[in-house]
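Possible regression after last week's pipeline update?

I re-ran a chain I had predicted before the update to compare outputs. Posting the input and the new output here so someone can diff against the archived version. Not blocking, just want to make sure nothing changed silently.
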Amino acid sequence: MKEGQKDIFFITGESRAAVGASPFIEGLKKKGYEVLYLIDPIDEYVIQQLKDFDEKKLKNCSKEGLDIEEGEDEKKKLEEQKASFEGLCTLVKEVLGDKVEKVLVGTRMLESPCILVTSEWGWSANMERIMKAQALRDSSMSSYMVSKKTLELNPEHSIVVELRKRADADKSDRTVKDLIWLLYETSLLTSGFALDEPTGFGNRIHRMIKFALTINEDEKVEEEETQPLISEEEMKDGGEETRMEDID
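New output (post-update):
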């Protein structure tokens, strides 16, 4: 472990490649912290019972309460970012409603604009996936073990910075709301969850594609005629019968 590392960090997932590319550990890897990759389904069950090892607590990187050592300058910078993005966090919570419990500024990301973390005592995203795959799962247990999600925003990501500017200019902008939902839904995928409403996600993607292609929302593309018209000469010469045979 790195000198000064107080906890044992771990992350669970389907494969080494999946957890290695996880946005949850971007900041930890940059700071040189060791992270255990737990990729077997049984690990999820074992780790719930194993709370510590050698007097060091085991911390799931995909859950809230991840304590990363920061210097005084970093702490001061974080407080300034929290104040600066407070309005955006409030707007995002209003738009998403009960989809998330909290929206706040996070420090564990580098390249990702946002992530969804779960509460310390509930299931992780990987555990939810495992339980949903169980043929004889206990639905009553899943109702209270599924965690409330917290959306953490990366205050240094260009998307989040620009979104804050747009939101400050006009909170009722439809594009801003669409972008908030897209950020939430893409963070569901990158954080290991399943999409709640794939159709809604697809519709928002299509609207963004139209916007990028400068296609008006109400604009309709005229269909080209694929069948030539029948001339009067063809009609006189029995062309109608010939056309019907072609169609058949």
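Follow-up from reviewer: compared with the archived run. The chain is about 45% helix and 10% strand. Marking as no regression found.
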